Amino acid sequence: LMYAANQVDEGEQLKGSSEQIQTDFEVEVTEENDRQMPEVVREANNDNVDKVIRECKLLLDQGKFKQAKNLMEDAVKQEPNSPETHAWFAIALGRLIENSSVLNKMRLLPIFERETLRALEIAPDLLLVRKVNGMRLLNTPEAFGGNVKKAIAEFQFCLQKGLEDDELYFSLAQAYIKLKDLEEGRKALHSSLHLNPEHKLA
What we know:
Elements: H1 2-61, H2 65-78, H3 83-98, H4 102-122, H5 127-139, H6 148-160, H7 166-178, H8 182-195
Helix pairs in contact: 1-2, 1-3, 2-3, 3-4, 3-5, 4-5, 5-6, 5-7, 6-7, 7-8
């Protein structure tokens, strides 16, 4: 009887060990899946963000500034931690502000600043974000935090890091013209037109 009882105890111990090993294995698999899933989700989110940004660019090119603004406003709600969505929301707001009444400008400017600063907080070294921050500093009245010299510094930072586009040079030209540095302003406008001969404002 004692022998039988010992056999039963050993069997229970083996069974318990087997169940523990299985449980540990399941935990490891679950943890591994948990580590992998965010990466998959992140890639899907990045694809979605890229798609929305392409649509935003198309709307801006078509002069549909309000639709672009609404699109990116929804994108920010869906992807609140994406610096690109905040930056493009700010860009859409900026284009809308340029084509709005004074009253609407006053309403939209604080949102434009908030979105720019949020993008800057998330990704302070992202060139798109630095470019948008330069636009903020350039177009915001000095009494509300605007600073043309700092805007130029932001644009020059982007150029030194290899970012070149017609809008960047055009914004740089505007900044130099505001400081009455017409020679540098002309050079920046020439660079803008060189990249995009059909630039409507340059």
